[in-house]
Each structure stands twice: as structure tokens, then as C-alpha cells.
Amino acid sequence: MKHAMSILSRCRLAGVGLALIGAGLVPGLVMAQTTAAPAAVPVSKSRPLPTLALRPLPTGEAVSSRELAPSAHSLLVVVDTNVAASQSLLQTLRASGSEGQGLHIVIVGPENAVNALQREHASRLPQAAWYTAPASVVAATLHLPALPAMIGVEPAGGMGWQYVGNPPPLDKTRSLVGGWLSRPVPPSR
User: Average pLDDT, whole number, for the chain?
Assistant: First the structure.
């Protein structure tokens, strides 16, 4: 089972499609995954954002994902140039009215495709911070079964929730992103 799951974690399929294919390949896979649509799933408050080396786009010195934790809630968005749903997620984020404030977008894929995708969307999400990192490292470090993914990052650097797979409809994206980024920061103790 562990070997099959590691094979599945390397697949670059999006959303429920991964669960449907996985259910056929791995008999022990939980069947509830095949009927549930992607959704924002709470992550344990005790789980910090893992350390991940990210290279800012279009150029720059590598930074640690730990340096992304601002003084407010932010969103880590992970997209793959080889997954059509990633393009859809970026288009949905653009259409949601966001200018990218509070968004840290990590693009994985071949370097020329990464740069092209960043150039295509950067003008419409001008306040977003753009990064790249190797796909296998990102998926393994963040424990993502599929891409694209959105991860709500708390001010202290913890992972509050994640949404993996096909992007939600525009109104839900607007609600998820806007609601998370506008949350009040708890007072420091």
C-alpha cells in the first residue's frame, strides 16, 4: 500500500480524477474519496508549514518557505505547468478580483514553461509573490496527492487548511481566498 501511495503521489493528475484512478489501482484506498468533490480540508494546527527551498521568479536567490509567513494570513498556491487545472486555478484567482496580495504562488514544471506561465499571469496578479521549485520536492514536502493546491498559511507559519485538485467555482474561490486573507490576526500572547 505504501509503495502504491508513493506512485500515486507522483502522479500529476488533478482532483477527483486522482481518487478515481487511485481507487482502481489500490484496492485498499478509501472509497469515500471517489465520491467527494475537492474541498477545503482543515489541517492540524500543530502542523507547521514544512521547510521548502523556493526560487523567486523571474530570478532570484533561493528562499525558505518559512520566510513566507507574514504577519497576516496568506495563501500558498501550488500549480504545475503540466496540469490543465493549474491554469484554471490561476484564471479563477485572477477573475476573483484578487490582485494577488497575500498570495505566494509556486509553479512547478520545466523552466521554460514555468517562466511562460508566470509571465502570463503576473500582470493580472501583480501583488502575488512568484516562486518555483522541483515538482517532486514540493509534492513530497507538502504531502500533496495532486496539483493544483491552495494552502492557507497562518500568521505564525502553520497550515490552516488545504484545497487540492480542480479549482472551486469562482464564487467559492472568492469566498475562500477573501475570507482567509481578511481574517483578523489573533493577538500575540
Answer: 76
Give the H or E element holding residue 152. strand 149-153
H/E segment holding residue 161:
strand 159-164
Q: How many other CB atoms sit within 10 Å of the CB of residue 124?
A: 15
Count of alpha carbons within 13 angstroms of residue 168, beta-carbon side: 18
Whether the Cβ atoms of residue 182 and residue 97 lie closer than 8 Å to each other: no
| Residue 51 per-residue DSSP state | P
pLDDT of residue 39: 54
Give the model confidence (pLDDT) of 4-41 as tens digits. Answer: 333 333 333 334 332 322 222 222 222 223 333 455 56
**Strand 149-153 with 129-132, pairing:** unpaired
Phi, psi of 123, deg, nearest 5: -70, -25
Rg value, the chain, Cα: 16
What pLDDT digit, counting tens, does each position of 108-118 carry?
Answer: 999 999 999 99
Strand 74-80 and strand 103-108: the pairing is: parallel
Sheet holding 129-132, edge to edge: 41-42, 159-164, 149-153, 74-80, 103-108, 129-132, 53-56, 63-64
How far apart (Å, rounded) are the C-alpha atoms in residues 17 and 172? 20
Looking at per-residue pLDDT, the higher value among 153 and 156 belongs to 153
